[in-house]
Amino acid sequence: MNNLNDVIHRVTQRVIANSGNSRARYLELMERERERHPNRDTLGCSNLAHGFAAALEDKPAIKSGRGANIAIVTAYNDMLSAHQPYGAYPAQMKIWAREVGATAQVAGGTPAMCDGVTQGQDGMELSLFSRDAIALSTAIALSHAMYDGVALLGICDKIVPGLVMGALRFGHLPAVFVPGGPMPTGIGNKEKQKVRQLYAEGKATRAELLESESASYHSPGTCTFYGTANSNQMMMEMMGLHVPGAAFVQPGTPLRQALTRAAVHRLAAVAGDPAASMARTVDEKAIVNAAIGLLATGGSTNHAIHLPAMARAAGIAFDWNDLSELSAAVPLIARVYPNGSGDVNHFHAAGGIGYVIGELLEAGLAHRDIATIWGGDLSEYAKEPWLDGQTLAWREVGASGDPDMLRPPSDPFLPDGGMTLVEGNLGRACFKTSAVDPGRWSIEAPARVFDSQHAVAEAFATGELDRDVVVVVRFQGPRANGMPELHKLTPPLGVLQDRGYRVALVTDGRMSGASGKVPAAIHCTPEALGGGPLSRLRDGDMVRLCGHAGVLSTSADLESREPQGPSEDLHGVGRELFAMFRLGADSAERGASAMLAAGGL
């Protein structure tokens, strides 16, 4: 691609160079796996008989080896709104496979927990490591060596990264992600945010808050704010792992069904083709493209953790230096709630991911020449799907349908992607500047140090935080307690900021894709547990956070102090079962994974 931006070219070449040995080892492993497990003929008769015993209508086809057999790995449950539509998918997908002489089987299921349900609860401490459990579940599902391709049914926060990580260890097979789509738009985002802050101030009742939330999260489908779940869908498009344009089509529509049918037909068509394998699709350029899409759209900060982890599963080294350098070159061309007023349905109607990809390619801000599951290159994803009668087709997107939602790179909302690396004697952290008014990117104020978000809420309620303050919440890293999201902090800190105080958050925990208007240095590494700098901070220490200069520091003499330790009890809600994940986890910048670390990846 002749017009590729120089910074993107330089970062990509650095990622390729840094990944040289590990990527070569990964590709060698995938080639060995392809030779060892080319098809079901390598199974013994007893093994194979177990594999098709319950296949009923498809038994003769699987027994004879006639046509591709597709593995369905599903994260279906009917508590999680985004995944409830998947209940009907397997039966439909089996019919669509038969249309093209193929078969499909549900190879296995994975966990699918909802961070929206567990926010602020003890169960949230299982959330990040559910990603590793999902990867392991995916590997178990695919270990039967019965399959020629993989359909991955998952949408939300840890689920898509976990499916990617697990499926990449079977990267000799082609794989496609099959989304379910967002629920229809509920109440306005400003109204929802207003009720949340009123409740935080004691000016709205729990019944009023529940009514507001129920009007927002109200039906099957993905939550409509641009958090981690919808950022996942964007990244799958940028990496060429979807049927083009599948990300944001609502559940239960004829178009949604047609896209899923096309995914099954495509898997059947490319089964056995090494060029269509997931190992070839997810390469260094695809990972860089995912990061570019994240930055161009103001996506979830959680992917500063998930992208390095997904990359490692494919033998690729990608870190926060790469993300921050890309951010400086990639303009923000989308504003979706919480970074703007409209949700993902408005985003899709205004041109959506097809518009974003087309504009990025035109400006030389993304790699066109990636190998996609759909064939061709990324330009196939710069279109929007539609039904021409009964036929699935694609058409040009055209200009932005809403300049308050989508703009070209020549007239961006911000000149950079708004994901800034800040560092200093307090460690390295991520600062999502795209969600924060530039006048608040820099703050120097006394620290108020907490060991839990519940303690912050108590201090807010008693008025202790009514001043300029840097709220430090520590012992929230992966090894301490599983790195829960601290999204419950957004309303009280937002209230303090609205009262006129200079406020910031510094934490070794996460703030999620819903990170809002308060400046926040998150994912701080090294984490406090084990003697990281945050463990030596004290109330009153002056802390400086600056998104302009990329600084996170304190004037306090940390070296003269002994580190403090956490006091939280990590028993209950199954947290004790995840002790091995906590003990083995590596840093947030390396993906916060015990599984990858233990596997030598």
Describe this structure in words.
Its cofactor is [4Fe-4S] cluster. This is Phosphogluconate dehydratase. Residues 69-380 form the Dihydroxy-acid/6-phosphogluconate dehydratase N-terminal domain. The chain is an alpha/beta fold. It has 3 domains: 6-184 and 219-396, no CATH class; 185-218, no CATH class; 419-568, IlvD/EDD C-terminal domain-like (Glucose Oxidase, domain 1, 3-Layer(bba) Sandwich), CATH 3.50.30.80. The protein is 37% helix and 13% strand. It is built from 23 helices and 14 strands. The chain has helices at residues 6-18, 20-36, 45-52, 59-64, 89-99, 115-118, 127-142, 159-168, 189-200, 206-216, 228-238, 254-270, 278-281, 284-297, 303-313, 320-329, 344-349, 352-362, 453-461, 478-481, 490-498, 579-584, 594-598; strands spanning 69-74, 103-109, 149-153, 175-177, 383-388, 391-396, 419-424, 427-432, 442-450, 469-473, 503-507, 520-525, 542-546, 551-554. The strands form 3 sheets. Strands 7-8-12-11-10-9-13-14 form an 8-stranded mixed β-sheet. A hairpin with a 2-residue loop joins strand 5 (383-388) and strand 6. Helix 5 crosses helix 12 and helix 9 runs antiparallel to helix 10 (206-216). The model has no long low-confidence stretch (mean pLDDT 94).
